[in-house]
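Entry 12.
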Amino acid sequence: MAHPSVHHHGISVSDLDRAVEFYSDVLGLELLDRYTLSDDALATAIGSGPLTSSPP
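Predicted 3D structure (tokens):
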């Protein structure tokens, strides 16, 4: 049986640098990429469709 996994997720934070430090130093996660989106690109990235899921 396959183990469940998460591909990606988004979390809003008030201080991005502190959040990255916490997730890296405390939780041991690795920052793979960091970039800035314009307002239009952000709206496209977030989308307005329904929440969907698919089996692993």
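Annotation: The radius of gyration is 14 Å. Residues 16-26 form the longest helix (11 residues).
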